[in-house]
Amino acid sequence: MINTFLIILSGILLINYLYFLTGIIKGLGRLNDTGKNKIPDEFISVIIPFRDESENILISLESIKDQNYPKDRYEVIYINDQSQDDSLDKLLSSKKPDNIKVISVPEDFSINAHKKRAIRYGIENSRGSIIVATDADCIYNKSWLRSLLGTFDKGTAFVSGPVEFIENGSISSKLQKLEFAGLVFTGAGLIGNGKPTICNAANLSYRKSVYDLVHGFSDNLNLSSGDDELLMQKIRKETDYKIKFCSNKESIVKTEANKTLGKFYHQRRRWASKGLFYADKFLVVKLISIFLFYLNLALLPAAAIFLSEYFLIPFLISFILKTLFEYLVIRRGSVILYGKELLKYIPLAEIMHVPYIIIAGISGAFGNYKWKGRILKR
Q1: Fewer beta carbons under 10 A from the terminal one: N or C of the chain?
Q2: How crowded is residue 209: how many other Cβ atoms within 10 Å of its Cβ?
Q3: Rounded Cα distance, 93 and 215, in Å
Q4: How far is CA 124 from CA 120, 157, 234, in A?
């Protein structure tokens, strides 16, 4: 009896997960052409918070200075969040155009808000009607701003842009690039399907008036992250504005893959910690059901050993269908944005995917986090 129940449960979890992936595939197919690059009428403020970015800060500055965008139509604000290295000194001593300025967050400003406090302080000191948020370890092509902002129209409040990992030739960096591309495609597909759920703070933009309308980050300042998708979800829930994904390849922001397994683990653990705090509890339940699918997939081989060999059948069916549908997501997304060169690494990535999701999900739900020398409480 229990064996039958567990097999039925495996089938339900599989169907739920395949339904989720099918929605992503459909959503990717619904993304609108965003290649017109029409400059909005509004003034733009690019917000770049940084903390201890000595290795990246001047690369960021050189990259952002070369934007193919009218200098009198946008400003760039670097916000120093109590850096302990020489990144602030490097910025201050570098030659900068008049539309680029550097400010520092006061020590007593939203002490426990961490990265969000820097973004909030930047927004409060900005002139733009549209905020573009990115990170200090990113590289942009010359048409980044023009292509990202070309997605806006009067009825749009939030635009999520693509982010790509730079791989260095190692298998680790290639797998990270593939895995991260999967996250980008998932976020894009969900937006395209009218169910915006995830995005990345390294490349997004939103109307300042709508940010104020939903009270910004006021209800999640205690969380170490969430300055991206939690804000997007609030805008979707509390307003009638549109949320879009920019599928223009020129809008891609690039950043280096994690150099060590430990950094990758802590990054994914931090990202996973946000899920339980989504305001949409139905969405939380959906994410939990997806996690249970992965957990079940890991437990089925053990069940085949200790309970019945017949558990190998649902395991093989689940793993094969999971791989097939995830391949379809990656292939469709790759055609839109990154190219197909990483598809050959999918078999290896699929083997590592299950334990990674389980470990990140469990560890993300408990404990504290360390980021840039800070201990962040969940």
Answers
A1: N
A2: 12
A3: 36
A4: 6, 18, 20
Distance, C-alpha 186 to centroid of its chain: 10
Q: For residue 127, which amino acid is it?
A: R
Residues 6+ apart with CB under 8 A from 282: none
**Could you give the C-alpha distances from 154 to 89, 174, 210, 229, 342, in angstroms and in order?**
40, 39, 12, 21, 37
> DSSP per residue over 347-369, as a string?
HHHHHHHHHHHHHHHHHHTSS-E
Write the pLDDT tens digit of every residue in 2-30: 788 888 999 999 999 999 999 999 999 99
What confidence tens digit (pLDDT) does each residue in 289-307 have? 999 999 999 999 998 998 8
Burial class (CB in 10 A: 0-12, 13-18, 19+), 35: middle
DSSP 203: S
Question: Whole-model pTM?
Answer: 0.90
pLDDT in tens, 360-369: 888 776 655 5
Integer Cα distance of 223 and 231 in angstroms: 12
